[in-house]
Amino acid sequence: MSNPTVQPVLIVGSVAFDQITTPTAESGRVLGGSATYASIAASYLAPVNLVGVVGDDFGEANINRLRAHPIDLEGLQIDPTGGTFFWSGIYGENFASRETTDTQLNVFEHFEPTLPEAYRATPYVLLGNIHPDLQHRVLDQVVGQPFVAADTMNLWINISLDPLVRLLPRIDLLVVNDDESRMLTGESNLILAGRKLREAGPQIVVIKKGEHGSLLFHADGLFAFPAYPVTRVEDPTGAGDSYLGALVGSLAAQNDTGFGALKRAIVRATATASLTVESFSCDRLEEAGDDTIAARCAELQHLVAVD
Amino acid sequence: MSNPTVQPVLIVGSVAFDQITTPTAESGRVLGGSATYASIAASYLAPVNLVGVVGDDFGEANINRLRAHPIDLEGLQIDPTGGTFFWSGIYGENFASRETTDTQLNVFEHFEPTLPEAYRATPYVLLGNIHPDLQHRVLDQVVGQPFVAADTMNLWINISLDPLVRLLPRIDLLVVNDDESRMLTGESNLILAGRKLREAGPQIVVIKKGEHGSLLFHADGLFAFPAYPVTRVEDPTGAGDSYLGALVGSLAAQNDTGFGALKRAIVRATATASLTVESFSCDRLEEAGDDTIAARCAELQHLVAVD
Asked: Following DSSP, what letter does each residue of chain A receive, concatenated?
């Protein structure tokens, strides 16, 4: 990175194969996983240290696909005892619903996130959507006072609420979607839900609302930003992971986590997530390039400009 | 009005009594109706010429309540043959649903909107949510080339689609909510729905998304704006009417219907609608005053400011 202030980002999450059926297409078996999307999105902005696990079937082509970006793979375990985490699902009409048709944890079942020595002091940490116990074990290994962002999902809220609640005071930024914010707080009003989440630990909360954009809750105030006006959704899988990856990548690139830096990071995250939904897997996210993302960021700023 | 550019607004719609039950309160019989909310909201910005009908039970107190604002009542018919239009409804948990429990059309059943001579050349026309045949009959009486904005509802889309579709090429601005935009176009993607509505006639389309704000579709581009962060909803009835009244009132006050004027009008409409939901009837909308609305407009601008 030419900018000396740019900091690396540690990203922990799933690296997986997905097989997705939408109302109009079928993906086949494609590269997916929360850490995959987040790492590629973040790597546009900052070098990434990836921690995850894949199985004996992951293949050199996929390793090389990740390596094509500034993503360090020392922390990617290759476990020869089984296959890579596999998920398949079907989206309903207009992507209004999603049904899981198969989940094979494979080598992910006994995944123990281990940080290589060189990763421990990474100043920006992104805990992707994995079991909260694993998110805790990552934080147990870091040294210094990194900025920590975390994602979660309805599954963990339902079956592992206690470790998730205990995680909240250990993180700086929680990024959840609207349904998750309501599940976690019991508040249907998103403004009140965001405030309650901040009281539960993280100083900064972002609530993602899909096509309706996102809300940032911060000690300095509230920020509301629309989604990019996407008209051709092929597959929304990974949009949230891409959003979070670009968000933390942008903070690391600015080496600033203040209110202004967070707002700029949200613009970037919004633009980046809009690319992910336009193709299966990370195809569009990878091929888009800096110029396309920068153009969408400019479009987004224009979209809300009153004068 | 001290500003010589401010133009009057003709508003046609229902003037009614509502009786509303929410999860936490009961309104009793209160002043309502699409023209009532729209007129009070618009009257903060521009003088209003009101066309509607009330019955023998409307009462001098309610007449005076309207007259306390710059609302001309020459066009308000008082029909001694029956009662005022009455609607009652129950909102479900979190205002996620609304059920009509009683509708008494009363004198509204045979309402014939008649424009007093002095109203016919009003340069801004707001067709509130009434039967599309009545909206046509209003336009048949205007002279000159006024700027015409119209609202509608799911009922008319279901039972009077043909006159509604024929209305669209006669108006300049259509303001609908997200569900109505989907019903009218068959498009689930709101960006595509807005574009299709523009192709159906109106040069300008606004899609309201409740707590998620609104979208403006215009030849010069797209504008997205969040809702005001309301945390205490008492009764959402009339929010859409207040939004439209403030929107058209703001255009009339600016005497400008360009893209920039529309954006400023949407900020004003958003702030105004946020007041309506904080009380039953028009109570909060009436008592708030210019300073409160201006403060909310400033807050809204701040809410989306990136730098």
From this structure: --STT---EEEE---EEEEEE-SS-EEEEEEE-HHHHHHHHHHTTS-EEEEEEE-TTS-HHHHHHHHTSSEE-TTEEE-TTS---EEEEEE-GGG--EEEEEEE-GGGGG------GGGTT-SEEEE-SS-HHHHHHHHTT--S--EEEE---HHHHHH-HHHHHHHGGG-SEEEEEHHHHHHHH--SSHHHHHHHHHHTS-SEEEEE-GGG-EEEEETTEEEEEPPP-----S--TTHHHHHHHHHHHHHHHHT--SHHHHHHHHHHHHHHHHHHTTSSTTHHHHHHHHHHHHHHHHHHHHHT---
